[in-house]
Every structure is written in C-alpha cells, then in structure tokens.
Amino acid sequence: MADPKGFLRHPRREWPRRPVGERVKDWDEVYVPGALLPLIEPQAERCMDCGVPFCHEACPLGNLIPEWNDLVSRADWRAAAERLHATNNFPEFTGRLCPAPCEAGCVLAINQPAVTIKNVEVAIADRIWEDGLAPPRAPQRLTGRSVGVVGSGPAGLAAAQQLTRAGHTVVVYERDDRAGGLLRYGIPAFKMEKRHLERRLAQMRAEGTKFRTSTAVGRDIGGAALRARHDALVLAVGATAWRELPVPGRELDGVRQAMEYLPPANRVCEGDLDVSPLSAAGKHVVIVGGGDTGADCLGTAVREGAASVTQVDIRTLPPAERDEDADPWPAYPTVYRVSPAHEEAGELGFAQESDTDARLFAASTLRFAGDAAGRVRAVHVGAVDARRRPVPGAERVLRADLVLLALGFQGPEVTAGGAVAELGVSVAPDGTVARDAGYATDVPGVYVAGDAGRGQSLVVWAIAEGRAAAAAVDRHLMGTTSLPAPVTAKDRPLKP
C-alpha cells in the first residue's frame, strides 16, 4: 500500500472524454488520447488494500486488484502487467467494455466514490502493448491432443489461448469472415477500436492457435466430422437468439433487430461497405430497449446522421445513488448511468421526447404504425408504473422511419443445421445449452463456455468461463491440469 491516506488525498478522477461535437464526427474511441496515464498513479493510490477486498468477489475473473493498484501507484508497470495477465487474458477488452462490477464491490464505495479500477486496468493493458509486455507465449511442448473451439467471442478466445498455451493443438471455427464474434461486429468502434482485437489475434496466431473463419458448423463442416477431427470441443457460440416484440405492426418494413443494424455499421468501419444498407442517415430512429445494445445503436445512429433518435426504456428512471434497501453494497446497483452515447444524444438534442438525455423511461411499446407502402412511420408508446402496469390515458406517438429492437438475447441459436443441433447437445428449459458444473454437456468430449451456457452476460463472465472451461478440457484430456478455473458453470453474480 503506497499511501495509506491516498483515498483521503485524491478525489476520484476518470478518463476524460473528447468533446461531443468532435467525437460524433468519427468512429474513434470517445476518450482523450494520452489523458489517462497522468491521472492513473494517484488514482491507484486511492485503493485501501482492504483486509477483505470485495472487488475480488465482485469480479468473476478474480482479478488481483489491490496488488496491481499498488504496483501502478509505484509506477512498476511490468509487475502490474504480470499480475493483471495472471487472471485476465484480455484486459484491453474488459477495461473498455465491462460495466465494472468490481467498482460496485469496492470497500471505499460504501461511503465514497469507488477506486477507478476500470481505468487502472485499461491503463495497464495499454502499457502492456506500448512497452512490449505481451510477447507470444508458445507452449514449450505439444501434448499431441487436438481441441476445436466453435465461436471466437471472448469465451472462445480465452479458452483457445489457455488450451494452446497448455500445449494442445487448437483450431477456432468462426462462421463470420473475421474472428472476434460480437467484439468484431456487435461492439461499435467508438467503444473499442478493432486494433485491440487484431493485436490479440496476432498474438494467438503466433502462439500456435489456428483460425478457420467463414466456417459454420452445419454448413461448412458437419458436427460428426468436427467431433471426429478433434479430441475435445468447446462450444462458445454466444447467445445470439434475439428476443422478439410481438406487437401489432412488427411486420412493417423498417422494424429491425439491433443485431441486424450494428454489424453492417461495423463493416463500414472495416472498409467492407461504403454505406450501411440500414444507415440511420436522415431518419427518425426509435430504439426499443434500454440496455447496452440499445446505447450502442444510439451512438451509431448519431454518428450516421439520424434526424432524431429516441430510446424507449420500460424501466422507471433509476435513482442517482444506490438504494441501500434494494441494492445493498457490494451488489451491482441499479442507478442512473450516462454512457457516452447518451451524453452525445442528450447534449446534441437528438430525441423527439425524453425524460433525460435521449431516453424515454417507464414507456411500453404498444404498436407500430405504417404507411400505404408498408413502411413504419410511427411508434405508439404508453406509460407504465414501477410494476410495469399500464397507466390509462398516457399514450404518445413517436415519429419513426427506423425502429431498432434491442431487447436482449434468449440464448444460443438452436435451429436445425446450426452448431448446437449438429453437435447433438441438450438444451435446458431456459434455452441455454445444458451442462454440469464442470462445463461438460451430455455429449462426451463436448464442453460449453460463455453465454451459450450461461445466457446473456458480461464480457468478464465470458472470459472467466473460457478460462475455466479450458481447465476442464485440459483435465479431461490429460487427467490433471494446472490451468486456473476462476468460476464454475453454476456460479452467479453477487445479488442482494
């Protein structure tokens, strides 16, 4: 602990964002380049090195947060990088994309603003690359065993890297033309530039991991052939079966799913397209759903030049501070948060109607209305109370040329001919792939990791599960393992 009074000497200061008017003109990350490092050492000093650090329990990766906070406060970046990589394969992903449940569990957060754990993490992650502290770690010997990983999102990549480093021959199968899963085509570049992903993929290739892109199980290779080719399989296809909104007018042209809208926008940034076929340019956009995917759509539509963007959220406006009765520390609290996208849309006045920034809270989508050509032209919404019961006489109409449904995901795709069906694994009643506490499915040698088995979750849970599933596969193949298993398949986040 570098400074026992650091939390008293230094107020919380976060990585500053670029001015809204500047950043909405490009797809670069929203933060001021180079502005984080000058802040980070005193911010790390705010860590109290608690006797019982609940930030460990709040993070499924078991990140050694007080240790690397202390090392950063002393400017020992090499040692901090080693401690961070000890538990997290991809800190540059989590430092940018995770909502930081570790900060909710910070002991300092009981009565003060939490330590900026996420900012410290991303600062270390960026120094790792700047200082050449992430060389490929190829195995010293090969086991002669082969593992196939289906899916290249964070769970699949984590499992693949761990298994490759353990000496197995690993092949990652990805149905898209580039590896990365939702990190590639679901997350907008203004949240995480794809160069961070490309660096990790290059590292993994140098270590020996093989990637087979544009290869869908069931289309390009059968499930039986895949099982015959490898000694074990890790199914990490994510939870990509989106939730529907069965209201009148759903069939109208212009009512689309968020994950139909975001990938082509990302392909524009990749240089594959000049303009997205679903571009929001000049359109009145209504986003149904108040989560992170909805915010991603919001920031994308603003950058594409939408005429207006309104996000409809059925939840009531959250409180500004933690409700200790409903969300006692150290659980992750429901509070009012302003993402960069909400800040942009609010400051620039993009919403037709809103309670705050671009969001319309306590609003339920009743129906869509269209014109004679069958194109959507309006969204009818009604007010609801805290228990989501309709409030009589509180209907309003929002103009809409494009409606994006961002209602979350039910689980993996289980349609005939897909990876789940081809491998013959059982599906649980909740729509996820059935598995035991050790990630094993009911098909021998087939394991499942990440959202495919857990359901829609956070990037930290995906990486933790990928690491743990890799340990299970290594034990299955070798009889023992030295790989870490930070979580079991039955573990869940802290709840009140």
From TrEMBL:
Keywords: Amino-acid biosynthesis, Glutamate biosynthesis, Oxidoreductase. Coiled coil: none annotated. It comes from the Bacteria. Pfam families: Fer4_20, Pyr_redox_2. Pathway: Amino-acid biosynthesis. Residues 36-69 form the 4Fe-4S ferredoxin-type domain. InterPro entries: 4Fe4S_Fe-S-bd, DPD_II, FAD/NAD-bd_sf, FAD/NAD-binding_dom, Glut_synth_ssu1, Glutamate_Synthase, Helical_ferredxn. SUPFAM superfamilies: alpha-helical ferredoxin (SSF46548), Nucleotide-binding domain (SSF51971). PANTHER family: GLUTAMATE SYNTHASE [NADPH] SMALL CHAIN. This is Oxidoreductase. It comes from Streptomyces lasiicapitis.
